[in-house]
Amino acid sequence: MEKQMTLEANALTTKGFATQVKRAAYRLAAPQRWLRKYYSYVLGHNVGKAQARMMTEAQLAFFAVTLPADYPLMLRMAACAWFVVTVRKLKTRNN
Q1: What is the pLDDT of residue 16?
Q2: Distances (CA, A) of 5 to 2, 8, 9, 34
Q3: Which label site among 20, 24, 69, 71 has the fewest CB atoms less than 10 Å from its CB?
């Protein structure tokens, strides 16, 4: 017995593609959601996306200042300035 199958030229519709993109974006944003929940738990109040992003940036800047021991002085000063600016932005956003 012979089976016949019809294939459409536009098998991947715009709606299906948009759904796939949304699913991928949701999965890629999972670490950000986890951090936001963690920050909310630790601080005791709800933390938004922007605030969580700034807190993560402040942590990265802090590690850039403290961890490497053999950085050139100018690079260490730049990392320190980045840390100070980030903490001030975070502080003004919270008030």
Answers
A1: 80
A2: 10, 10, 13, 45
A3: 69
User: How far apart are alpha carbons 41 and 65 in whole angstroms?
Assistant: 27
Taking the CA atoms of residue 46, residue 49, residue 55 and residue 59 in that order, the dihedral angle to the nearest 10 degrees is: 130
The values of phi and psi at residue 26, to 5°, are: -65, -45
Contact 93/54 with Cβ under 8 angstroms? yes
Q: 64, 83 in Cβ contact below 8 A?
A: yes
**Total residues found in the chain within this entry:** 95
Distances (CA, A) of 93 to 37, 48, 50, 89, 90: 19, 11, 10, 6, 5
Low-confidence ranges of the chain (pLDDT < 50): none
